[in-house]
Amino acid sequence: MTDRLDSLLATLPRAYPGPGGAIAVLRAGEVLTRHAWGYANAERRIPFTPASLFRMCSITKQFTCGAMLASGAALDGAVRARLRLLEGAAPGALHLAHNQSGLRDYWAVAMLLGSPAEAPFGDAEATRLIGATRSLQFTPGTRFSYCNQNFRLLSDALESETGRSFAELLTQHLFQPAGMATAFLAADTRAMPDGTEGYEGSVATGFRAAENRILWTGDAGLGASLDDMIAWERHVDATRDDPAALYTRLSAPVTFADGAPAPYGFGLARGQEFGRAITGHGGALRGWRSHRLHVASERISVVVLFNHMGDAAGAALDALAAVLGEERPQPDPDLPAPAWLGSYREPETGLSARIDLAAPGQIRLRFGQGPERLDLQPNGSAGSARTRLHMAPDGLWMERPQENFRSRLIPCEGTPGLDIAGRYHCAELEAELLVTTAGGVAYGGFSGALGQGRMEMLEPIGPDLWALPCPRALDHAPPGDWTLAFRREGGAITGLRVGCWLARGLDYARA
User: Fold this and answer.
1) Are residues 47 and 197 in contact, defined by beta-carbon separation less than 8 angstroms?
2) CB 156 within 8 A of CB 218
3) d(C-alpha 409, C-alpha 465), whole Å
4) Any idea what DSSP says for residue 342?
5) CATH number at residue 185
6) What's the pLDDT at 167?
7) Do 316 and 397 have their domain in common?
């Protein structure tokens, strides 16, 4: 194992190149690897060390849920009070903690309101977007959809119900008991106190300091060093047999309303790697990537931090494989491409599903927040840990167990027409979509209370179905292509439905 870890540390910086990074691997509370390389700030030549402060991004979510459980505060009423315009029943605090609320992610909705990618987004903007919510994507408890504002709502509700700041609650209930000496609430993303910087770019294009002007709290506000995370992982192991311990409660099984097991709960994803059950979470902001995973049966923890936008999750799995002496599975390049590649529409969400060949033995599915690579199987299906596609006598089926979701996809055949130009208004958001077709090329752009977004070239999918790319957004990564599903009455375009995986089912009428 030592040789495998030494080999990993030697290859990791070049396998995932960028300004700097850090990794820790623990087993049974013992630190097997504590290593950092490169620069926390390349311009100021500040080395990246295990003590360098880092934006943990969405790893914050489990700490937010920990503060909620430890405080014992009842938050359902405070959540409902912040959704004053919502029609119908509001989600409860547990729906938020399990990403089963049905709320649309406010970072995605911000792009529909015309926000530029580097626009400031603070308390006022967050309160405005959350408070303007009028409808949900699904009945709370029935589905899963990742939603940052679920955890923003939890941290805000904790403050109002306890009368204490979220930073104080984190320190009392998590940082001090775990011995996380330098961890803090790093809500303002413009700078870190020790100068650590996050970077955009690549080896080919060069790296540049990433610009963040967002105020994060319970969704992605944690600041911590590798040493702080080592302390957390040792605390998790030391309290593993205590049924009242926070991590025991955070990692307990959760279900959907119909009793089906939910692979996400209390800010932690549950899954399987190398035949072992794991819990963990990734984190990502513009310029930052992090990932932690915990294998309770083996008492193994892995933490990876990159101050660039490399694949921290992939690096964490490489480390886990090295500890376990396993090989990461690879697709079979000899399997033929399936006959069902093409474009589809998913009827429940209204989103497009585009499937093409990615590499020998792999296909690419564009449906969720980002493209997914699915390995082809000998039985003609294709799948990953999150998604499975298989052909049945009645058509192509998509299964996404994490979302408690199964659907038969509807093929989209034919070419969309160019009579879609016009202005479209969304009454729910008080926002606008402009579509132009000058020169025979379709473009679209959103505008609203947060500004005027840039025009993007539309991608044709099928009859009256287009994709509007969103290559940059407020959050660390774009919300995925927007599906534009136009509707007709008497042959004329009268409106459309706009959506992506994070924010679905918004109706626009032609002005």
Assistant:
1) no
2) yes
3) 14
4) E
5) 3.40.710.10
6) 98
7) no
Measured CA angle at 443 (ends 441, 447), to 5 deg: 165
Enter the tokens of residue 222.
């944690």
User: In angstroms, rounded to a whole number, what is the distance separating the alpha carbons of residues 358 and 337?
Assistant: 10
| In-domain check, residue 333 | no
Q: Would you say residue 159 lies in a domain?
A: yes
DSSP-derived secondary structure letter, 188: B
- Residue 397 sits in the same domain as residue 432: no
Torsion of CA 7, 8, 9, 11, to 10 degrees: 90
- Domain final residue pick, 350, 383, 411: 411
Indicate if 289 and 376 belong to the same structural domain.
no
> Which residue, 411, 430, 453, sits at the end of a domain?
411
Q: What residues make up the domain containing 348? A: 342-411
Tell me, yes or no, whether 320 and 364 share the same domain.
no
User: Does residue 361 sit in the same domain as residue 444?
Assistant: no
Sign of the CA dihedral with 318 first, then 320, 325, and 327 last: negative
Q: Count CB-CB contacts under 10 A for residue 275.
A: 8
| Tokens standing for residue 53 | 């402060």
In 132-267, DSSP assigns E strands to 184-185, 199-202, 206-209, 222-224, 254-255, 261-262, 264-265
- For the annotated catalytic residues, the residue numbers are 58, 61
Going 347 to 470 to 208 to 189, the CA torsion angle's sign is: negative
Examine the pLDDT at 235 and tell me if it is beyond 80: yes
pLDDT at 479: 86
Quote the pLDDT of residue 232.
Answer: 98
pLDDT for residue 212: 87
Tokens at 467, concatenated: 């994709």
At residue 474, the pLDDT reads: 84
Domains in the chain, number = 3
Cα–Cα distance measured from residue 379 to residue 157, given in angstroms and rounded to the nearest whole number: 49
Residue 89 in any domain: the answer is yes
Query: Considering Cα of 56, then 62, then 65, then 71, what sign does the dihedral take?
Result: negative
CB-based contacts of 387-396 (< 8 A; 24+ apart in sequence)? 389/340, 389/355, 389/363, 389/365, 391/338, 391/340, 396/340, 396/344
Q: Tell me the average pLDDT of the chain.
A: 96
474: tokens are: 């407020």
pLDDT for res 118: 84
Position 52 scores a pLDDT of: 98
What secondary structure letter does DSSP report for 476?
Answer: S
Q: 3-state SS of 114-153?
A: CCCCCCCECHHHHHHHHHCCCCCCCCCCCCCCCCHHHHHH
Q: Is residue 287 part of a domain?
A: yes
Tell me the average pLDDT across 88-108. 96
